[in-house]
Design a protein that fits this description.
Helix content: 25-40%
CATH class of the largest domain: Alpha Beta
CATH topology of the largest domain: FAD/NAD(P)-binding domain
Number of domains: 3
Number of helices: 14
Largest sheet: 7 strands, mixed
Distance between the termini: 75 Å
CATH superfamily of the largest domain: FAD/NAD(P)-binding domain
Amino acid sequence: METSAIIDTDVAIIGAGTAGMSAYRAVLAHTRRVLLIESGHYGTTCARVGCMPSKLLIAAADAAHSAAGAARFGVSVGSVEIDGRAVMARVRSERDRFVGFVIDAVQQWPAEHRLVGHARFIDDATLQVGSTLVRAARIVIATGSRPSVPETWRTALGDRVIVNDDVFDWGDLPKSVAVVGAGVIGLELAQALHRLGVRVRLYGRGTMVGPLTDPELQAQTRHLFAAELPMTLNVARLEPRREGDTVVVRATAGDGTMTEERFEWLLAATGRKPNVDRLGLENTTLPLDREGVPVYDRRSAQVTQRPIFIAGDVSDDRTLLHEAADEGRIAGDNAGRYPDVRMRPRRAPLAVVFSDPQIALAGASHAELNAAGITFLTGRVSFSDQGRSRVMGENRGALHLYGEAGTGRFLGAEMVGPAAEHVGHLLSWSAQRGDTVQQMLDSPFYHPVVEEGVRTALRDLQHQLHLGLMPVERCLDCGPGA
C-alpha cells in the first residue's frame, strides 16, 4: 500500500475500547505525543454489545418474572403480557445512550491524538494504518476480542446463526432461539429470553453451567437452572442445519441418545477469541502464545523486555470491564514512563453472573486453590432457610467460603444465590485486604439481611479451621456473640 503520510509519536495505542481509553488517559501523565488508533466504531464492548445492553434485557426479564410470580405473596396482577417491540426499543434506546457517553468522551480528545483505520505491524516499532505510516517509540495493543463461531455453522446456517452482539439490534423478540454455550453469556441470555416468552433451549458440551468451579456448588447450579430452563448438557456432537428460515439442531449426547429441535435462530455463545489475527504480528520479533497473543507479564503489561504492552480482552485473561480498565491503566502508565517499567499489584478477582439466582466468585476460586496446592477448608451456608432470603422468596442456592489452614486467612468464595452481586463485592474486598475469618466476623451484620448468611458461613469456616466454637444451629437472630 502506498504511504501518503508519516506520523512519529511516543506512544501508539491500538484500540479505543475500555482498555485503550484507560491507557490513553494514563499515557497523558507522561507525554502528549500519543496516538489512539481505532478501526471500528467508538464505544466499548461493554456499552455496545456486552454488560449494559445485556442487563437491560435481563431487567425486562426480571420484571416479567416478578409479575408472573407475584401471586405467591398474595398479590394478583392478572395475566402478564410482553410487548417484544417495546422491550427491544428500550434496550436499543438505553444502549445507544450509554454508547453516546463513550463517543462524546473520545471525540473531546484532541483530533491529532486520534486516527481511524486498521493498524498492522510492519515491524516492532512501525504500524501501517491505511495510507499512513505510524512510527512509535512504544505501542499498546488493546484490540479486544470477538465471539468465536465455528465456520461450519456459518456455512450451514448463514444469517440464522447469530452472536450476542446481534441480539441487541433486534426490533422484536423472536419466537424461538437455540443458545449454544452454557457459560456466562449463554446462561444470562438464555434465561432472560426464556422469561420474556421466547422458547429457548440451552446446549452445553460439558456438564458445567456457569463459571463456578466448586463441585458441590456446580452440581447445585445445574439443578437450580434445569428446574426452570430447558437444557441439553454433555453434548458430544452438535449438528445444526438450515431448512428454509428454520434452524434444526441435532444434539447427540455422550451416551449416544439423539434429539432434534427446530428454532428461528441459533445463538452461538461458544467463547471469544482475541483480535490479533490481522495485526501482522508475524512481521515482529514478539514471542507469541498458542493463541497468537504476545507473551506478557500481567503485573506490568509488558511484552518480554520490549516497549510493547498488552491490555484488555485481547490478553484473554480476565475478560471483564474493571480488569480491562486496570490493565489499560497499567499498560498506559508503563508505556508512558518506559523504560522505567513498574510492577503493579492487581486487584482481588471478582466475577458476577446476572442470572437468577445470581452467581459470584470472589478472591481465589476452588479450582485455583487446588491448582496452587494450598491447604484450605470450606465454610458453608444454604440460603434455603436463611431469614431474609425466605422473606423475599429467593431462598435458593448456597455460599462456600475458603480459609487457609493454620492462619485462618480468608482466601476466596464461590456463590449461587440471592444478592450475589453485592455479597461478592464484600468478600472480594476482604480477600484483597487479606482479612482473617475472625476479622470478618468482628465486622457488623445488620438484621435481617442476606449478608447474615455470610456470617453463618464464616462461623462454619471458623469451626472447620479449629479456631472457633460449634456454630449455633438455625441461629436466625443471633447477635455477634453467639
